[in-house]
Every structure is written in C-alpha cells, then in structure tokens.
Design brief:
This protein has about 325 residues and is of the alpha+beta class. Helix content is about 60%, strand content about 15%.
Amino acid sequence: MLDRVGLISAYHFDGRGNARPVGWDDLPALNDIDGFTWIHLQQNATYTKDWLSRESGLDPVVVEGLLARQSRPRCTEFVDGLLLDLRGVNLDPTCEEEMAPLHVWVEQKRLITVRLYRIKATRDIRDQLAAGHAPSSIGGLLARLTHRLIERVEPAVTAIDDDMDLLEHDMVEDRSAATRARLNGLRRRAVALHRYVGPQQMALARLANQRALDIDDHARGRLRDVADDASRSVADLDAIRERGKLIHEEMEARVNDRMQANMYLLSMVSVVFLPLTLLTGLLGINVAGIPASESPHAFWSVCFILLVLGVIEIWYLRRRYLS
C-alpha cells in the first residue's frame, strides 16, 4: 500500500457555520451527507497523485491541471465545476518566485486545493477554522480563500512602494552604484508581482461572473470585491513600475550631466594648455637659434608670458561661453 502522506488538512462544513477536521478514510462518506468539504493537498506527495487520479472522480484534464508545476493564473469552467490556477505570497525559502502557485478545483460540494510551496493564505484560513470561524457555503469559502490571497499581496506591494520612496529620498545625496542596484532590485520585484497579479485579477473577475457554480449573491459580491482589490494592486504595481522608470531616467540624466560637465572641463583645460604646450615645445627643440637661450632671466620671462597667455585665454573663454 502506498504511503498516504500528502493530506495537509481536510475539513467538512455542515453549512451552518461549523467545521470539523477529517482524514483520508473519511473522504468517501462525505459525498453522501449534507454540507461541503475542503481538501488541501501537498502536490509532490505520491499518494496525492494517486488519490487525484484514482479516487477523486475528477476528469483527467482537471487532475493534470491540479498537478501542473508551472502555470499562469486563470479560471477555466467545466461542466461540473471550476479549475483555478492562482498565486499566493510565498512562505517557502526554497521557492525563488515572489508568488507560489495554488491550484484549486471547486464544485458544488467540494473544494480541493493543491500546493507545492507553503502559502500564507491557506494557513490563515486554517487558523480561522481552528478558532471556530467557518463559512456557511462553498462560495463563502472560495471568497475567503481568494480574499486572503489578494490581501497578502497588498503588504508586498506596499513594501515595494515604501522602499521606492526611501530610494527616491536617498538618491538626492547618494549617487553610487549601490543606489542603482537597489532600484534595479525593486523594479525586478515589481515586475515579478505584476507578472502574476495582472492575470490573477482577470481570473478573479471571470470567477465572480461565472455561472458554472450556484454561488449565493453574498459570496458573489465578495468575489467581485476581491477582483476589485486585485485591480487596485495591479494599478499600484503599474504606478510603481512607472516611478521606477522615471527614477532610472533621472539617475541616467544625472550621470550624463556629470559626464558632460567633466568633458567640458577637460575640453577647457585642453584649450587653455594647447597653445602653452605648443610654445614650450618650440622653445624646447634641440636646435641653434633659440631666443634668449643665454639670458639668465629667460626662464622666468617665459613663465610670465605663459601665465599672461593663460589668463587671457581663460578670460576669453569665460566671456565667450559662460556669459
């Protein structure tokens, strides 16, 4: 017999605001009693795959979707239910992505969630159930799950926005490469979140308007509110990306200004010293007939002439280009 590891948690709801935990052996009998069930599974467990394929009664296409390692947020309607690919804020340090996948199958009396990495939203709901706060309908459970997913995204978006504020303030005095690295890191985080929050908002909007499930008006209204919250998060991420772009352009403009100022200074130095270098080069050639070569005061006289020429050149350049 296969090792039956893979069930993270399962609850049966009586539809009157009460929930009780159940195990693998309880699942077959739950289909014949009132209420609904939430089954939360570990994706990479062997028995999870076996149960979904052989005992869950799900279509093979649905099973394949629940076991997919890579997916984009979406809402797919089937005759007897909905397949949702969602994303939640990641709790597992082994997952390199900002948001970890959560696969959801929901039908009239059963909701199945499958995850590979730990997600805060499902942990929050389990804590609520442990405290005695259970939804009275499967639509309410779905609304609560999607709400917690989006609610957990908002602090991540706010943190990026706050970091962007600090960077914008520090940029006035700090022009080092470390500041540019911080900016690039924030922009990458915003892009990583937007990559999933944008499609997730569209999936949630479609979920709120679907007709495959008989969801009560209250739960449907909450699902619409969740879609609106996701839309605001998308708008905030768009604003952060635009701010990052503007800050990057401002930093590039400052670098270019400094380079131009340095090039201008070097050009002025070259213009001033080129005639002086020409004169000293002529006086330094090793041929007979150099004027005043035998005079003891020739060196200081040449220095004085060079100084006068330098002052005249600087005066002319300031009057010509800086006035």
